[in-house]
Write a structure and sequence with these properties.
The structure holds two protein chains of two kinds. Chain A is of the alpha+beta class. Chain A contains 14 helices and 37 strands. In chain A, the strands form eight sheets. In chain A, strands 18-16-19-20-27-26-25-22-23 form a nine-stranded mixed β-sheet. Chain B starts with a helix and ends with a helix. Chain B has two domains: about 90 residues, no CATH class; about 210 residues, Rossmann fold (3-Layer(aba) Sandwich), CATH 3.40.50.410. The N terminus of chain B is likely disordered. Classes of the chains: A alpha+beta, B alpha/beta.
Chain lengths: ~725, ~350
């Protein structure tokens, strides 16, 4: 509903209305200079008194009105009144979320980039704040930074806003919602909450789970506006991922392979060239490929047997570059062997496919093909596993185990803290007391392997519980919306664990909105992923889904990023372990800049930490005359330029009032129209001043010559004019 | 005879001194620019200008000078020879009128003697002088009261000079003090003392005052009313006519200040009524036209109403030379004498 509001930008200037006392004192309160004189008799003067009084009042009152109106208008102009339409008359708490992810770099020829348009719109929104509004400005990519906290002076941040550039991280607009929720605690009661997202509004920008959580937490549904700044027909091609598969038996002479997956978003197929470089002394290899929109294209490169891949990083380049060039290159660290995955299983008399960990084993094994390796699985029962097994693994999987020995538990914790990954599958074999006392930390929930204590295992209520509020933008679920392998959302749960407290980690999916299904938790350099179901079909049908194997693959890749794979996403915090050293450690960026990392002893190794890095490429860690590389890749989530479904977004945002507008629709569709009134008021005030001068210098001499002469003489106006010369001069 | 001569001599000496004083006042009246004009007179007879006379001061001698000057200025005056009867001679002094020189006695004695006459008293004159507070108003060098007093003095002198009996009645809100008519030259000083001792004060009630005076005047005579006539015009006119109806000859001198007629005030002014103390704040410029028109109407009303009744009406303002008033009196006096 459109409202018209008249408000002032500088209400303190209204205090200057005290100047109104000047004409009041001059005209009404000041004792008039009246000459007193005796007269013989007033008998004959009484007859003309009424007529006389009217003439004096007319003259004085007109001048008083003119002067008072002039001062009032002057004060009003100083207060900078504006006339606004399109917003309700209530004060508003405005949150402007500006997308600064990589996809905002999209630039079509000589036109301004999407980021430039978004920045301009954000500035426009900030300026359109009404006097009683408070505005916060948030910058969001895969995490959210507060550029301007909630306050009435957001315009002070415009200078900082002009320097904002899009980064290389993926978009996660849902990451802004917890920040907004925390800022809502300082909101004024009765004020409207308005959230404006300035984004290219692709489907992967949104996180249903974050939206649902936010809407559950806020006291009243906010007004949400999505300002879509996406280009009309975007197209992009990108390297979705690459994997090095070495031969399981080097003596076989079988060449290793580099498998590259490429994606394409456009209206038509694209011809590109993929080049493999930086594998000296091997020659560069080139493939001409035809990329089909909406489908992954796989390209293989062979690496000769016997080629030493230690500390080698292959570079893949897609040419020619397109309008999002950052995802046209990829750096692939080559590992001499597959990533070691330790699966700790419960003891079971059944060794066949009915073993509880059988689907998990199978999934990991099939990820290698025909003698190639991707993951090197080692399976041990929880009774057999030793700390040594744990220390040699990059990723540890607790597959519905009841407990582990204390040395093993300690080894697992140490391995995770130093960059390893841990996946915990819950199930009927789990002993809650062990998990709650040994894996979870009651005093410091964020410091334990288990981010939240278990309560009890419960069956679903009379039906299979669905998986809800999935964070599809998380890399763990990349391409899980694919029509072929995208059945993750159809997983149904028969039983699951309830947790004692609200989850402290990042909940990636829920079971029927009642209990977390997937919880991600960072523990120093490592990551922990809690899966609230069994790795087989006992508690859910996840293991039987087509998406199970890709999910395990991404899960292992995600958990091993800080390990031997040494790959990080742009915008992520860097945490990895290096050999113990007393020398200075220096990190060189792809642009040859030096970074000073934070080092912390971690057992026999040293923990290296760096703040989030946005520059993709190969980083070199130099210590003890040894150089070890790690890679920062751009997120590929922003490469998929698929517009968000407006109907789906509205459904996710219910019951909030969601409005989606295109930036091309003009400012009228984005925010209120503001008409500054002070120029008009100043013009009227000037007219009044001219009128007053006209009356004093022209009209007054005719009405009351003596008074007019006095006024003109004191003012010095037109003193040389014979008409207005003082009586003495005449 | 010697006493008379010495008295006349002293009076003559004083008169000459007064004339010199008056002459200086005339020559200095206009400031420096008047001097450069070589003492040119400011009118037919500068000695009758009230402003100049006010500088000199109010005295019986001044009245004499004024009246004598006025009489001397009347060429071919029709008023010569009123009830003249030879009384005695006195020695001629410079300034005496040569027409009263006794040439026969000069032929006999070779000395100049002036003939003096004993004039007959053939009329009773009553001067009714308004002493209300409004008479104290004046914007020039003299108020209406000053002007009226001097006019009354001159008239009294002239009456006494013509052997008429002069009485004085000062009235305001009430009939006031009544001085009976007498025909003694020394009576002039007594009349003046009465005027000096009874300054303007109080309000005006023409009707009751004049009615009271009428009851006290037993013999018919010439009644000279000097007033600003600030009262109800209709009733005032009726009361004056009542004088006429009592077989009195009536002359009305309507005395105004020039400011009352022109209303020259400027700027917001708080006027205070001299009689009632009432105050009124007005812008004079905005009421000037209406006020002046109303004053003209009032004067016209009195002039028409009195003239129709056979009453002489003379409107004066405080800048009007006294000869106008004296001429008016003499004209009426002549008609009464015939």
């Amino acid at each position: 509903m459109i409202f018209a509001v008249l408000s002032v930008l500088a209400p303190y200037a209204l205090a200057a209305s005290a100047l109104l006392a000047i004409p009041i004192i001059v005209h009404l309160l000041k004792p008039r200079k009246v000459r007193q004189t005796p007269f013989s008799s007033l008998r004959w003067l009484h007859l003309t008194r009424q007529h006389l009084t009217r003439r004096i009042r007319w003259h004085q009152f007109l001048l008083f009105l003119l002067r008072a109106a002039f001062i009032v208008l002057l004060v009003l102009a100083l207060a900078r009144p504006i006339f606004s339409t399109g917003q309700e008359g209530k004060p508003a708490e405005r949150f402007i979320v500006l997308d600064v992810s990589r996809s905002m770099k999209y630039k079509d020829g000589d036109r301004p980039s999407v980021m430039d348009n978004a920045r301009e719109l954000a500035a426009q929104l900030v300026r359109q704040a009404l006097p009683e509004d408070r505005t916060a400005l948030l910058l969001t990519s895969n995490r959210t930074d507060v550029l301007c906290p909630l306050g009435p002076d957001a315009e002070d941040c415009l200078a900082a806003l002009s320097t904002v550039r899009a980064g290389n991280a993926d978009t996660d607009l849902g990451s802004a919602l917890p920040v907004i929720r925390s800022m809502l605690s300082g909101c004024r009661p009765g004020a409207d909450v308005r959230i404006a997202f300035i984004t290219d509004n692709y489907q992967r920008n949104w996180d249903q789970a974050a939206i649902a959580t936010f809407l559950q937490d806020v006291p009243s549904p906010p007004q949400v506006k999505i300002i879509d700044v996406a280009p009309p027909h975007p197209h992009n091609a990108w390297i979705a991922g690459a994997r090095f598969q070495g031969a399981a038996d080097e003596a076989s002479g079988q060449p290793a392979r580099i498998i590259v997956q490429l994606g394409c978003s456009s209206d038509e197929a694209q011809e590109r060239t993929l080049t493999l470089t930086d594998l000296s002394p091997l020659k560069d290899q080139t493939r001409n490929i035809l990329l089909q929109p909406g489908r992954l294209t796989t390209v293989d490169f062979e690496v000769p047997a016997g080629f030493n891949v230690a500390d080698k990083i292959a570079r893949l380049q897609l040419t020619p570059s397109d309008r999002l060039p950052e995802d046209d290159q990829f750096w692939l660290p080559l590992a001499p062997r597959g990533t070691q995955v330790l699966v700790i299983e419960p003891e079971s008399p059944r060794k066949d496919r009915y073993h509880p960990a059988f689907p998990l084993r199978t999934a990991i094994d099939v990820l290698g093909q025909e003698g190639m390796y991707a993951w090197q699985r080692v399976s041990k029962s929880h009774r057999e596993v030793t700390p040594k097994d744990v220390a040699g693994a990059e990723v540890i999987v607790l597959a519905d185990v009841p407990d582990v020995s204390e040395p093993v538990r300690h080894a697992i914790e140490e391995r995770v803290r130093t960059g390893g990954g841990l996946a915990i599958f819950l199930g009927p074999h789990v002993q809650g007391s062990f998990y709650n006392t040994k894996l979870a930390s009651a005093l410091q929930p964020g410091k334990g392997l288990l981010p939240l204590p278990l309560k009890s295992a419960v069956p679903a209520d009379n039906r299979l519980a669905p998986m809800t509020r999935v964070s599809w933008s998380h890399p763990l679920f990349a391409s899980m919306l694919d029509p072929i392998v995208g059945d993750l959302g159809q997983v149904r749960f028969r039983s699951y664990y309830l947790f004692d407290d609200s989850p402290r980690g990042n909940v990636l999916a829920w079971i029927d909105d009642k209990s977390p299904a997937l919880v991600e938790h960072a523990l120093e350099a490592g990551k922990v992923l809690v899966v609230n179901t069994t790795p087989n079909a006992d508690w859910s049908d996840l293991a039987g889904r087509a998406s199970f194997v890709p999910l395990i693959d991404r899960m292992l890749a995600h958990l091993s990023g800080g390990g031997s794979r040494r790959q990080f996403r742009a915008g992520d915090e860097i945490a990895l372990t290096i050999d113990k050293t007393d020398d200075a450690v220096r990190v060189t960026t792809p642009a040859d800049a030096s970074l000073v990392p934070t080092l912390k002893p971690a057992g026999e190794r040293t923990m290296l930490r760096l703040p989030p890095q946005d520059e993709p490429g190969v980083y070199l860690v130099r210590s003890n005359d040894r150089t070890r590389p790690f890679v920062v890749q751009v997120g590929v989530g922003d490469s998929v330029l698929a517009p968000a479904d407006a109907a789906l977004l509205r459904q996710w945002w219910q019951p909030a009032n969601l409005e989606i507008v295109r930036a091309e629709s003009g400012s009228a569709g984005i925010a209120a129209e503001r008409l500054p009134l002070w120029p008009l008021i100043l013009a009227v005030a000037s007219f009044l001043l001219l009128t007053e001068t006209f009356i004093v210098t022209w009209l007054c001499p005719k009405a009351t010559p003596a008074v007019a002469h006095g006024i003109v003489h004191r003012r010095g106006l037109l003193a040389s004019s014979p008409k207005t010369a003082s009586p003495e001069a005449r | 005879m010697p006493e008379t001569a010495s008295w006349l001599g002293r009076l003559g000496g004083q008169a000459r001194g007064l004339l010199r004083k008056l002459h200086r006042a005339v020559t200095e009246a206009g400031g420096p620019q008047v001097i450069t004009e070589s003492l040119s007179p400011r009118g037919p007879n500068p000695y009758l200008d009230p402003a100049i006379l006010a500088r000199v001061g109010f005295s019986p001698l001044l009245a004499k000078v004024v009246v004598e000057g006025f009489i001397n200025g009347l060429h071919k005056s029709p008023f010569h020879g009123f009830s003249v009867e030879f009384a005695d001679h006195r020695e001629y002094v410079a300034g005496d009128d040569l027409k009263y020189l006794d040439w026969h006695l000069y032929a006999r004695t070779d000395h100049y003697y002036i003939k003096r006459f004993e004039e007959e008293t053939n009329l009773r004159c009553y001067i009714l002088l308004d002493r209300s507070a409004s008479m104290g108003f004046g914007t020039g060098q003299l108020t209406k009261w000053d002007y009226s007093c001097f006019l009354a003095t001159c008239l009294a002198y002239m009456m006494l000079r013509q052997q008429d009996a002069v009485g004085l009645s000062i009235f305001g809100a009430k009939p006031g003090l009544m001085v009976p008519a007498r025909c003694r030259r020394s009576y002039l000083r007594q009349l003046m003392r009465v005027m000096i001792d009874n300054g303007p004060a109080g309000g005006t009630d023409m009707v009751s005052s004049l009615r009271g005076i009428i009851r006290n005047i037993k013999r018919r005579g010439l009644v000279v009313l000097i007033s600003d006539l600030i009262d109800d015009p209709e009733q005032t006119l009726a009361t004056i006519r009542l004088l006429q109806s009592h077989r009195h000859d009536v002359i009305v001198f309507h005395v105004n200040d020039a400011a009352e007629l022109d209303f020259p005030f400027e700027g917001a002014t708080l006027f205070r009524d001299l009689e009632t103390g009432e105050e009124l704040e007005i812008d004079p410029a905005s009421v000037r036209d209406g006020y002046c028109k109303r004053m003209q109407d009032i004067c016209e009303f009195f002039k028409k109403g009195l003239t129709e009744s056979g009453i002489d009406y003379q409107m004066l303002n405080t800048r009007t030379p006294y000869d106008k008033a004296l001429a008016g009196y003499l004209g009426r006096r002549a008609r009464v004498g015939r």
